[in-house]
Every structure is written in structure tokens, then in C-alpha cells.
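Hey Z.,

So I finally got round to the heme C thing we talked about over coffee. Here's the setup:
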Amino acid sequence: MWTERNNTHGIVLVAACCLAIGSTSGATAQGASASPAQITAMKSEYRRPAPRPIENKALVDLGRHLFWDSRISASGNSACVGCHFPYLGWAVTDQRSRNDSGKPTSRRAQPLIGAGYIAAPVGWDGRSASLEAQAKSSIATGSMSMRETDTPVKVEVIEERIRNIAEYRAMFHAALPNAPIDLDSIVKAIATYERTIEPGIAPFDRWIEGDESAISESAKRGFVLFNADANCFVCHGSWRFTDDKFHDIGTTTTDLGRGRELKNDEDMQFAFKTPTLRSVALRPPYMHNGSSIDLYEAVKHYEKPGIGRPSRSPLLVQISLTEQQRLDLVAFLQTLTGIPEGETQPQLPGKN
Ligand code: HEC
Ligand code: HEC
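And the result:
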């Protein structure tokens, strides 16, 4: 199979992306199949944009506090940050997170790094239409709602709790002068904050900007593989390393993913949203179910891309990697970690 891609310089890259089973030629061990001009063209696809402008700083600041505040959960024990740790690429390293009632969530938490750029719908299965809708369902019906416990607390109780904190009242007034302090305002603030979560500058970004010493030769070979023989770029080819689309990549799972939402769409059964690979090294294990324990295993997944069911993406092709090439891909993925990444907890209103 051949894959074409236009890049900003108008050059068309044609990458021989897949090796037939039994092929003896093998991908070039050095990944040296790309010329300097081709590498320059590949690199131009990954230049990051300027950070998103911030329109309402007071609203962002309010959202930051609410994101860290467990008082917006029914039990008063769970905060968004508890499943989206800033220093882990805004995700977790558990295979499953624990929800308000102590039960493991059905899937691994998704990274919120670069959330301002996530194309809707959101969620592994795309069940929420926007960041606002996602936050609302977390609080009202999802993992923060105590839906499964004996002591459910209505959303009105949560709203009242926040309204009763004078400092919050002042912050809401500054951010949304005429709006009531209710769930809609709460999720508006949180979503606005989420949109400011920019990935930290990674060694990879410095390389893209021209610093040849920013990443190792191994990582550079990995980058070429990613964009050519290993065919990763067809789904992960942008500065955030995601196409924001849903694909079945053949993981062993009984979870229908996007197929739960789109029952009659055969291609969407077992399909999950392509995760960003920004700061991916910080948050093993990988995949919606944590089925790859580390980056090496995640790379190996694509050499034998799992279950060949009808929904499996046609974009997955047979690839064959040498041990050195696997390590090169891992070295490349490790250059995507922002330095530094994340931020620290703000001082929460009404707490010392
Ligand atoms: C108990 C753990 C837990 C808590 C608490 C939690 N999340 Fe999540 N989050 C998850 C899991 C698990 C997923 C994946 C959901 C799915 O698709 O099944 C997720 C997915 C998301 C997504 C989708 C990202 C994408 O790329 O599509 C966003 C946005 C998000 N969470 C924001 C929040 C916000 C905001 C809060 C607080 C209001 C919150 N989360 C609280 C575990 C949690
Ligand atoms: C057909 C589209 C597609 C192709 C091609 C593809 N990926 Fe993925 N990738 C995905 C999807 C979808 C997921 C999430 C799957 C899941 O959770 O079950 C994923 C998950 C990952 C993860 C785990 C990230 C995390 O946060 O859990 C890594 C690492 C990864 N891919 C790297 C690669 C590499 C390296 C290649 C090339 C060898 C590649 N991908 C090719 C779509 C693709």
C-alpha cells in the first residue's frame, strides 16, 4: 500500500508504508530511506502553533480552581485532577481510575494535554459533544456523581456548596458577571480552563525549530519511520500526534468503544479515539484498557495489529520492524515530553 500526503511546501511525500509478510527486504534499519528534503518536508507537518489566546482570564482562573476542587463531586472526595494529573500528561498511570464510589472506571483516563485543540466529539467513544458536555456528565451522571452509591447527592446540593463559599462567589462574579452560579457556569469555567492546557515545549519541538542537538540520532530515525515505513502518521500525523478520529486498531477488548454510540456503523465497532502522543512517555500503560504496558509494547502492537475483525482499520498495514527500529520509535516517542510539563495546585477558596 502507498500513502500520499501533501505538506505545506506542496511536496508530495510518497512513503512505502508496509512490508508484505515474508518480505526479505525489511525496512531500512537506519530509516535512511528519506532524503534531507523529505525529512524537512516531514518536519514541517509538526510545527506547533502559537498558544491559544486567552479571552477571559478570570474564567480560566476560576476553572483552574474548580478543576482541582473535590467539592464539585457529589461525595466531596473526587476532583477532575484526581484522574487527570498534570505531571502525567493530565492522565493517570493506573490501568483504570477509581470513581467516586471506589469502583474502577471502565476505561483508562484520557490525557487532557492540548485539550484546547481536541476536535469534538470527546471521549474514547466520542459520547460527549464538547468539553462542557463532558464535564457536565462527569459531575451530574458520571464518575463524580455517586450514581452507584447509597448516598446520592443531587446536583443542586453541589451548586449550593459552591455558592456558599464567598471567595467563589467573587470569582464567579468577576468571570461571568450576570450568570447564576450553577452547573452550567461551573462546567463553562472548567472547559475554558481545559482549553488553556498547552503541552510543554518538548525536545522534539526544539528539533523542529532547528536545534539538531535537541534529540538523539536514534529518535531522528524513529521520526522518519513514524512518517514512512511504520505508517504511524496516517493517524498520529500532526503536531499533537492525533487525527482526533476513531479507529479499531485490533486491541483485544470486548469494549465496543465508538460502536456503543454508533451501533449500525460497522467500521466504528471497537473503535477508539486516537490519543495524542504529546508527553506519552509519562503515562503508561497505554490504550483505552491499558493493554500495552510500555511504549515498546505499544510499538510492537502495530507489528501484529491484533484481531482481524471486520471493523479493523484499513489504515493499519503489516509492518515489520527490526529490534533497532522498535527502539528508534520508542526513542522518538520519548522526545515528545514537555519540559516542564503540568502545573501545581492552586490555593482553593475556603480552605487553608
Ligand atoms: C474517576 C476518574 C475521572 C474523573 C474524576 C474525571 N475523569 Fe475525565 N476521564 C476519565 C476517563 C476514564 C475518561 C475516558 C472516558 C471514556 O471515554 O470512557 C475521561 C475522559 C475525559 C475527557 C475526554 C478527553 C478526550 O480526549 O476526548 C475530558 C475532556 C475529561 N475527561 C475531563 C474531565 C473533567 C473536566 C473532569 C472533572 C469535571 C474529569 N474529567 C473527571 C476519568 C475521570
Ligand atoms: C489506524 C490508525 C492508527 C495507526 C496507523 C497508528 N495508531 Fe497508534 N493509536 C490509534 C488509536 C485509535 C489508539 C487508541 C487505541 C485504544 O485505546 O484501543 C492508538 C494508541 C497509540 C498509543 C497509546 C497512547 C496512549 O495514550 O494510550 C501509542 C503509543 C501509539 N498509538 C503509537 C503508534 C505508533 C508508534 C504507530 C505506528 C507504528 C501507530 N500508533 C499507528 C490509532 C493509530
